[in-house]
Amino acid sequence: MAEARAPLESPGVPGWIQAMPFGLVFAAFFVLPLIFVVIVSFWDYNDYEMIPSFTTRSYTESFEGCLTKLPQLCTMLATYLSTAKFCLIVWALTLAIGFTVAYFLAFYIRSPTTQMVLFLVCTIPFWTSNVIRMISWIPLLGRNGLVNKVLMSLHIVDAPVEWLLYSQFSVALAFVHLFTFFMVAPIFNSMMRIDRRLIEAAYDSGASSWQMLTNVIIPLSKPGIAIGSIFVVTIVMGDYITFSVMGGGQIASAGKIIATRLNALQFPPAAASAVILLCATMLIIAGLNRIVDVRKEL
Amino acid sequence: MNEGRPAAFYWLAAFFALFVLFLSGPLIVIFILSFQGPTGGLTFPMNGVSLHWFRRLWEGGGIVDIGGAFKRSLALGLVVMLLTVLLSLMAGLAFRKKFVGSDALFYIAVASLIVPSIVTSLGIAIEFHVLDDLLKNYGPSWISDNLTTTMGQFTSGLGAHLTWTLPFGLLVMFAIFNRFDIRFEEAARDQGATPWQTLRHVILPIILPSVIGVGLFGFTLSWDEIARSSQTMGEHNTLPMELQALTTTVTNPDIYALGTSTTAVSFAVIAMALFAIAILRARQARHGSDAGQA
To answer: What is the reported pTM?
Structure first.
């Protein structure tokens, strides 16, 4: 983290006072709300309001049938399993694409200016809003969209392909479109930190490009890969907008459980599913943290 | 590292070009289709070229209260931008010194990026509900009599956006100060500058272009934010929230016109920021001395 310290014995305003407004925002709008989420998840509720008395009702209802229905999956497990599947698919795709793009930018572009410009080109889709980026697939993938028109005019298919939009395919596609950049940035950063002399040493020792990639570059890019993975996986886990816009309301997800319960204005069950989601997210991060000590790399 | 371009370069360059096409293609399509003729539909072909859908949009036809949402989002984005710059800058300065709790604060800020936005949003909503109840039941009568809710765009909504923009602001500040040459600062102090004079006349002018970058982050992140806004905005929706609501009932191209318009605002802000940065850089180059340069 902040390595560049101010000159020693620097006088002036003490650090904690300068950091106070920043800290207060997070105390009031992040730490305290999370505590409230945990507390309220143990509250009771009726149709109109939440009732401050301790109960595990929200949790038992969330996991209803999870044990009795076995081997059939209860709603909660099925939803998490489906979300995990999306995580895995999106993670694999963004990693493959993101790594390739970062590798190209870091090792095949020589001028720093070109490198910077091309890197910024990767951020262009971020200059516009999430929802716009998502609806922009409609004219391409819809029943009368460009892709279907091309496929039909080439006589590859006779009727419009239906699974292009409002399907698992389109959800995964939108995720990859939106979040590959979160892989590119940290991996690129890791690659730029690799000492170029190591590459030359490997080259001089007769390593092929492939050996260079697998024995030098990939191991040294691990921190970037881990940070990118945390970003992508946590975003997919917690997302509900992409799932509902691109999935056409058909696909369940961990984040959507919370949104649905909120629409019914039931805070305690929504809070319980938020706590469950937080636990699942932390488990994944802990797992990734075992592979790479992320803290050392920030 | 090698002489000439290896074959791999061309494969990778082609891959990169495809990637950029994949990223920008849909946006270009939206842009073109927003100029669809009056009888045109949601997909190609174009039935003529017109500004029909933009006109309809500005006249408020078809879409409810887009103008209001537009102004609300703009106002909120500007406030978020100012606060993000100010608070991140102060925190960035603070993190250069040792202070109690600096590690904890850093991890909390990073955690705020990783905790799903809907969870943060839900937490803030609950917090304000509890606050409302407390005020209504136990607050002094001049508050409790007229109170409907403390939730609103510039209370809970503003806070929700800041938990999203500030961590980015702090990380950018780290990057700025990691590259900052502290010899400038020491020289100023050796010549008798007070800490405030050093900040005002030495540090700020040097880092100003990057600080504009922080502001840019603050505005664009707020301008596009939905998940954190969803439970925290009170009775009025921001523009992205209205947009999301519209996606379920899209029937004609005015949503594309709206998309093109909001994107244009983002582009304008980015262009202004880049322009300001370029001017500042040029000024620094003109006024800076060549001392210490090779």
So the answer is: 0.85
